[in-house]
Structure formats: C-alpha cells, structure tokens
Specification:
The structure holds two protein chains of two kinds. Chain A is mostly helical. In chain A, helix 1 runs antiparallel to helix 7. Chain B is built from ten helices and ten strands. Helices cover 40% and strands 22% of the residues of chain B. In chain B, strand 1, helix 2 and strand 2 form a beta-alpha-beta unit. In chain B, 47% of the residues are buried. In chain B, the strands form two sheets. Chain B has a five-stranded mixed sheet with strand order 2-1-3-10-4. Chain B has a five-stranded mixed sheet with strand order 7-6-8-5-9, with helices on both faces. The chains are: A mainly alpha, B alpha/beta. The interface between A and B is medium-sized, with 19 and 21 residues.
Chain lengths: 225, 249
C-alpha cells in the first residue's frame, strides 16, 4: 500500500468519527444548552462547569476517566459487556464517544448563549397566537438561535477531527478500524516514517482548511438570510 | 513596570532549564522504566551534581527523536536492529555501543483469565478476541512478537485480532485492564503487574532479545554519558537490572 492509499483510510475514518460525534453533540448540546439557558434549578452553574471540563482538562485525564467508565471493567463498561456483550474500547464507536465528550462544550456554550439571546417577547407572541410549547421551540426559538448553534457545531466538528489524546487511550490505534488521521500521524512520526507523515499532515491541513472555508460560508449565508 | 519585572523573574528558571550543564538525558526503551528509575538515585549519589533525566518511549520513537536532534546523551534500545539504524545514521559515538541486558518475550493473559493458552496456536480459539502487541513498525517488542508468530505460521490468524500499542507498557496495560484476552510483552514487564496479569507462555524468539546502549554523538554531556554507561555495566548497575528480571548480557 502506498502512502496516498494508507492516508485515505484514516481520513475516511476521521470524517466518520467526527460526523457521528457532531451529531451526538447536536442533540446533547442543544438539549443541555436549553436546560442551562432556561432552567432554574440549584447547581445550574456547577453543571455548566462540569460539562465544560472536557474543554480544559488534559486529554489524558479525560481518556483515563473514559477508560475507567466505559472499559470492560469500568462502571458502565462492565454492565454493557455483561448485558449486551458490547465492548467500546478499541472500536470506532469508542473513538466517537471520546470525540463527542471533548467537543461537547463547544456546542453547549454556543447553544446556551444563543438561547439566552432569544427575545422572550417573540416566544410569548407565539404563545398568544396559540402555538404549543413544542411549536414555539421549533418555530420561534430554534430558528432564532440556529446561527449560534451552527457555529458551535462546526467548531465541534473541527475539534473532533483533530481529537488525539483521549482517542488514543480509548480506541487505541488499529489500522483501518480506530486509527484516525491524528493517531496515524503520531504513529508514522514515532516509527520514523517521514514520507507517510508528510502525506498525512498535508491531507489533515487541507481537510481543516476546507472545513473552515465551509464554516465561514455557511455562517455568512445564514447571516444574510 | 513592576508586573513586567515579576513576570520576567518568574520566567527566568524556565528559560534557564534549557541550558543546564549538569543534566544528563537518557532516552531508554519503555521496558526499562522501572529498572532505570531505580538506578537513578545510586548513579546520582556516585556523580554528585549530575541530574539524571530519563525519557522513556518505544525504541523507534526515541531514535526518531534523536535523529531530529533531541538533546539526548545516552540511547538504550530494546533491540539490536534499532541501534543498528542509529549507528547507520551516525548518531552514536564510535566505539561506545555496549550490550547491557537480555530479556525474554512472554505471552500474558489477565490474572483471572480462564482461557486455555498453552501454545501459540491457542490464540486461534474464538474466545481470544483481541491480542495486544507493540506496533511492529515502531516497537521492538511488537517486532519480536510478529517474528515469533510468523515463524509459527500464525501471523495470519493473529493479525485480525491485533491491537497495536505505542510501546510495550501500553500492551501490558491493555491486558492488565482486561481489555484484551492476551498480549505479548517482556518477562520483566509482566513482573511489574504480577497481581493483574499472568504469564501463560514463554515465547521463543528468532533472535535473542538483547539490549544495547550507546553514547549519542554530539550529546550535550559526554562525560556524564560515559559515567552512566559504565555505571549500568558495573556490578551495582547490573544488580539493579537483575532485581527487575533482566538477564546478564
């Protein structure tokens, strides 16, 4: 297998992992962002701080937490394995979990700020006009907050694409199965294969530029609309 | 103004650490972690004023660092092949290469494993889903394991189950946590986690597992590097290595 071919497989895997992680973060980030923006309960700011931790914690700390939690002998992992025979360590799904945890704060923070920026009078207007709470959310609140959430999602996708530390600890480095771009770069450099590393870093850089250009375009598009 | 001065003062020790004449940097194979850490205080006591800085990783990774100009003084590899490559790139001072220890490759399983693993061919059984070994392209322990499996005509059966580790200690950790059903490590690694892993098989290797070390050409502290090589080969140094299960070279 030449260097270009061996680079394509990790790239495809990285895109798959980042895509799923972003999808998970969309659901979790919007839900939790709404809860933090609108919910009035004790410990709200503490919850926000805990959910933001993955952004500031060293990836190794996060990787260790995940190993202890979802490992075959971890609290959640042991139960999953005994009940369903599911093992998350060394799978691409494990890499998705690592990436989605790391990138969640980016969506969460953006979503919370976006929801807090929605004028409550507009929502009240909807209610007065007879919309249900769900309809108010999907037809008034979400469209108004969408731009901020989208910005968070794109950052989350880029962050997932670059995730390295926690992924290596949780998913390992299995070529074709869990070896993402960033892990493949690490491995090539460690093994002294500079030729492979050069191709991989070039592809990574180009992919990130494309993502950023897309992000800029999407954001401008939604600003005009 | 005052703040700037304070910041500068706080930064001074950080700036200073880059050029410390009495530091000795030893880049050593991951399997040497416990033994070399234990060796450090005795060496420093013998060489007052010298601070021993230990840098552990897979041998190939250390070589890649040194080839890119990492300021290491001594390089200790887990196989001859990596040291051969270092010499071919003229990274090792002429005549400074010595063999200082031998080791053995073993197959390990989690301590509570109930699988019957009496021969390498038992790795084919369906109960063995994942097997941890060092990445053969960058980890000597992985190369030894791959070589042994190829000699036994089992590499084709093991490769789909292989989980590659960045160094031998990571492979050990995977087995100790029960994430893989089996793994290939050195006998000395298995001894470090006696309560969590058990040795099920001594694996014969194509070539003997022999550790060489050498002084890095153009390293920052050649005098201390020479002292360290001598200390490792001395009866005191060899006694520490023997305590961790390394055999005489």
């Amino acid at each position: 297998m030449n260097a270009a071919e061996s680079a394509w497989i990790p790239l495809a895997l990285s895109l798959k992992v980042a895509g799923w992680a972003t999808l998970i973060d969309l659901v979790l980030g919007v839900g939790l962002g709404l809860l933090l923006a609108r919910g009035r309960f004790p410990g709200r700011e503490l919850l926000d701080a805990v959910l933001t931790l993955p952004m500031v914690l060293p990836p190794t700390v996060l990787g260790y937490y995940l190993l202890v939690l979802i490992g075959k002998r971890g609290w959640l992992g042991a139960w999953l394995y005994e009940q369903f025979g599911i093992q998350l360590i060394f799978t691409w799904q494990g890499a998705v979990i690592a990436a989605s945890v790391v990138a969640l704060p980016l969506v969460l923070k953006a979503a919370r700020a976006a929801f807090e920026g929605v004028d409550p009078q507009l929502e009240n207007a909807g209610r007065v006009l007879g919309l249900s709470e769900a309809a108010v959310f999907f037809r008034v609140t979400l469209p108004l907050a969408w731009r901020g959430i989208l910005a968070g999602l794109l950052l989350s996708f880029a962050r997932s694409l670059g995730e390295f530390g926690a992924t290596l600890m949780v998913a390992g480095s299995i070529p074709g199965r869990t070896q993402t771009l960033s892990v493949a770069v690490y491995e090539a450099v460690q093994a002294g294969q500079d030729g492979v590393a050069n191709v991989l870093v070039l592809i990574t850089s180009l992919t990130c530029i494309v993502v950023l250009l897309l992000a800029g375009r999407l954001l401008r598009g939604s600003a005009v609309r | 103004m005052r703040l700037a001065a304070r910041l500068l003062l706080a930064a001074a020790p950080v700036l200073a650490t880059t050029a410390h004449a009495a530091d000795l940097t030893v880049s050593a194979a991951a399997s040497l972690t416990n033994a070399f850490k234990d060796l450090a205080p005795a060496f420093e006591a013998q060489n007052p004023g010298t601070k021993l800085l230990l840098n552990f990783a897979a041998s190939d990774a250390l070589l890649a660092q040194i080839a890119k100009g990492a300021p290491a003084d001594v390089f200790a590899s887990a196989d001859q092949e990596t040291m051969d490559r270092a010499q071919a790139q003229q990274l090792i001072a002429a005549g400074s290469r010595r063999n200082f220890a031998n080791n053995a490759l073993v197959l390990i399983a989690p301590a509570d494993s109930t699988l019957a693993l009496a021969a390498l061919s038992d790795l084919k059984q369906p109960g063995v889903k994942r097997i941890a070994l060092g990445q053969p392209s960058g980890v000597p322990a992985g190369r030894y394991a791959k070589g042994a499996l190829e000699a036994a005509r089992l590499w084709g059966d093991v490769e789909p189950k292989a989980v590659y580790a960045q160094n031998v200690r990571q492979a050990l950790d995977y087995v100790a946590r029960g994430e893989t059903e089996a793994g290939f490590v050195y006998a000395t690694d298995a001894a470090v986690q006696k309560d969590k892993v058990k040795v099920v098989l001594a694996v014969p290797t194509e070539t003997p597992i022999s550790y060489p070390l050498g002084i890095v050409a153009g390293g920052p502290n050649p005098a201390a590097a020479k002292a360290f090589v001598d200390f490792v080969l001395s009866p005191a140094g060899q006694a520490v290595l023997a305590r961790y299960g390394f055999q005489k070279p």
